[in-house]
């Protein structure tokens, strides 16, 4: 059986297709991505504008066509913080459903943390021991801790790199030093409210998921992904401090020329660096290992290993071409 995870985020629509009955490293058999940059279409009142809604709806429709071609029988479709938290969410979901036939579900931030933790655990295996997961998304920051497949503790904070850029760093390119100071103070205060030394058990392995962390790891000396996904890569706290100072002086056009920084994330890499630095500092960690698996792989793994599983606010959507839909009652 082939199932798919369809992830509608702040930067792109991603589709991952998996097959049941295969080993941990062979579950993903197809992947597809279409960049939308819907985060740039969020208005000051928190709504996604007409252009953003059209981009996302068209991308989801394209993803459904790709899924059909890949032989998908079931789709798990959801929107992350950019969709979940927008002020006109119902209108966005209605337009997507009208144009694609798929009604997106939504996952809570804590559910995202739990499922990303599962993906990282599956990637690293039991040798990782007690694990601390850090994940910087576009809209939210997730943290989870535990020593089993699923975490014992998980939290989500509205400290995503895209959100912080929109709220603090749009007074210039590069932003003013005052704006950067305000952001650093805000992130530090928010993190220290929930991360208190001694409240979180000391981990054997600190792992970081998300493209933001991977790009920060490249800035701090990690090898590019073309050298192999299994190569150990780390984002280093000490160099991050110097990179924050450098990034704060560079316009987006120059940031995207730096190692590993993609053009569509260049505008928010400074906010990502600040969040990562303050997070590692709060936990007293000098580095975090990069995990190439994240939320989509976590959902896929959970579904493939537990057919009865479903997550809170999200739904499994039998595709129109599902074998079950073609079978007479």
From TrEMBL:
Pfam families, A to Z: Ppx-GppA
Top-rank taxon, per record: Bacteria
This protein's record includes keyword Hydrolase: yes
Keywords per UniProt: Hydrolase
Sequence ranges assigned to domain Ppx/GppA phosphatase N-terminal in this UniProt record: 24-305
Keyword Hydrolase: yes
CDD domains, per database record: ASKHA_NBD_MtPPX1-like
Family membership noted in the UniProt record: Belongs to the GppA/Ppx family.
The protein's name in its UniProt record: Putative exopolyphosphatase
Organism annotation: Actinoplanes missouriensis (strain ATCC 14538 / DSM 43046 / CBS 188.64 / JCM 3121 / NBRC 102363 / NCIMB 12654 / NRRL B-3342 / UNCC 431)
């Amino acid at each position: 059986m082939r199932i798919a995870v369809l992830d509608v985020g702040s930067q792109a629509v991603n589709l991952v297709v998996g097959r049941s009955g295969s080993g941990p490293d062979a579950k993903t058999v197809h992947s597809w991505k279409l960049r939308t940059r819907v985060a740039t279409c969020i208005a000051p009142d928190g709504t996604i504008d007409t252009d953003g809604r059209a981009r996302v709806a068209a991308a989801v429709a394209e993803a459904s066509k790709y899924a059909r071609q890949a032989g998908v029988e079931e789709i798990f479709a959801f929107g992350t913080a950019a969709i979940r938290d927008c002020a006109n969410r119902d209108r966005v979901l209605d337009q997507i459903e009208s144009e694609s036939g798929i009604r997106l579900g939504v996952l809570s931030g804590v559910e995202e943390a739990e499922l990303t933790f599962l993906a990282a655990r599956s990637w690293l295996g039991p040798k990782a021991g007690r694990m601390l997961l850090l994940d910087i998304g576009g809209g939210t920051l997730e943290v989870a801790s535990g020593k089993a497949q699923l975490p014992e503790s998980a939290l989500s904070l509205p400290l995503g790199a895209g959100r912080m850029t929109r709220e603090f760093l749009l007074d210039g390119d590069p932003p003013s030093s005052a704006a950067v100071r305000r952001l650093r103070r805000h992130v530090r205060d928010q993190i220290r409210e929930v991360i208190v030394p001694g409240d979180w058990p000391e981990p054997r392995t600190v792992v970081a998921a998300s493209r933001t962390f991977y790009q920060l790891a490249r800035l701090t000396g990690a090898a590019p992904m073309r050298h192999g996904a299994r190569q150990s890569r780390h984002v280093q706290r000490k160099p991050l401090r110097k990179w924050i100072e450098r990034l704060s002086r560079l316009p987006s056009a120059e940031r995207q020329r730096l190692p590993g920084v993609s053009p569509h994330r260049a505008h928010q890499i400074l906010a990502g660096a600040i969040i990562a630095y303050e997070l590692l500092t709060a936990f007293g960690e000098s580095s975090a290992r990069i995990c190439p698996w994240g939320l989509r792989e976590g959902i896929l793994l959970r579904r493939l290993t537990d057919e009865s599983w479903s997550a809170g606010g999200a739904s499994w959507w039998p595709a129109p071409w599902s074998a079950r839909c073609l079978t007479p009652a």
